[in-house]
Amino acid sequence: MLGNRDNLKLKIVHVSSSSPLTQTNQDYEGFNATRVLKHEQEHVHEVHCSRERSRTAWKIIEEYLMPFVEREHFPISSKCRLHPNNDLFRDQEQHKIHLDINDWQCGYCKKSFRAEKFLDQHMDSRHYNLLDVNGSKCLADLCGALHCDHMMKTKSTKAKCNPAAVARNHHLCESLADSCFPTHHGPSASRLHELFLRQFCDAHSCSGKQKPFSRGGKKQTGVLYLAISILTMMLLPVFYLIVYLHQRDMRMKTQELRRIPQVKRKAKGS
Ligand SMILES: [Zn+2]
Prior knowledge:
The chain is mainly alpha-helical. It contains eleven helices and five strands; from the N terminus they run ααββαααβββαααααα. Strand 3 (96-100) and strand 4 form a beta hairpin. The longest helix has 52 residues, at 218-269. Residues 1-45 have low confidence and may be disordered. The structure holds zinc ion. Residues 104-127 form the C2H2-type domain.
């Protein structure tokens, strides 16, 4: 979060050099969220949207919703807040190239970084002008409905349930289902509407009976596949080793059997 604040200072310097808004901009300095300042016809457009939480929200959509949407061949409307166009950071995130574990590259200017967070800071400071801050396009705002905290494991499981917050998230969740998958748009929209409620909205209750993403997603099958592959790769050499040892054992036994009559013959001859 410190990095964001540093970037913010950079932005403030940038804006204040071109406009007399230093005083108002400095007021934003205390906030943690990534802030993008944009002035348009003497108005300051200030968007505060967490890149990290937006990324988590996107990951959730990609893993736990998109596989079902793709299966239904349902075109998500751009009016739906889950549509990729409604993610402020989508374009920048797509321009992040992960070359190796410690090698990240900026797709706009090809500069290299050894960790994703440094590339994030670079995006915030160097390419913030590429962010489309018009309208409400902050995917992180949907985090309450999409269970980002559950995904990021930021909330302790022992935390007390807040009924008001749960009700708010449940309402947001249902409104997303209604706007993204309107039931009057046909059977596939109805099925996805139902799925969305089960997958995301049911878990917004204090009873704790329902877990988020109850219908599963892409990642789970991916992990299973990976686990099976690794297990097979590990067991294969063990299998060959057993076969080899067994065959060697057999060979030694037959050699021993051949040697015994020879020894007997020698004893008779002498
Ligand atoms: Zn760059």
